[in-house]
Amino acid sequence: MPDIDSKPFHLAFPVADLKETRDFYCNIIGCQEGRSTDLWIDFNLYGNSISAYLHPQEATRHIPDNHVDRDQTPLNIPVRHFGVILEWDEWESLVERLRNKGIEFTIGPRVRFVGKIGEQGTIYFNDPCGNVLEFKAFKNRDQMFQPFTEIKDFEAVVMQQ
């Protein structure tokens, strides 16, 4: 386990439809609903506070992406995304549950950095308003913040991907 002082984070994000958002985050992701009004909803996402704010114009904005991995498949990582780092078995269970609920992954499930520092399973998918979520798990959680030892290590990992 990384040596960090974990505290819950808070994130607010735009949505176009509160009813769809409530259904997705409660019934698909498994969040508990907190406070809400006719303009926003708070959710408990694995002990973190996320707030969906009704703002249809912002919710429909294009999310740019970045070519983080230079792999054989032309998949780019959405620049704006959020999610949770799970234990490996939790991640595998979530992948299966999301598949059973018909969620289409935009990326993954895939394992990155196989056999290297930071080996991780990852999935990306969109909520009904187009917000991008990423859930991941590290094979060795102690490597979560461990840097590549040299730039050539990073280049080798990126080129392998």
TrEMBL record:
It holds the Pfam family Glyoxalase. Residues 7-138 form the VOC domain. SUPFAM superfamilies: Glyoxalase/Bleomycin resistance protein/Dihydroxybiphenyl dioxygenase (SSF54593). The lineage of its organism: Bacteria, Bacillati, Cyanobacteriota, Cyanophyceae, Oscillatoriophycideae. This is Glyoxalase.
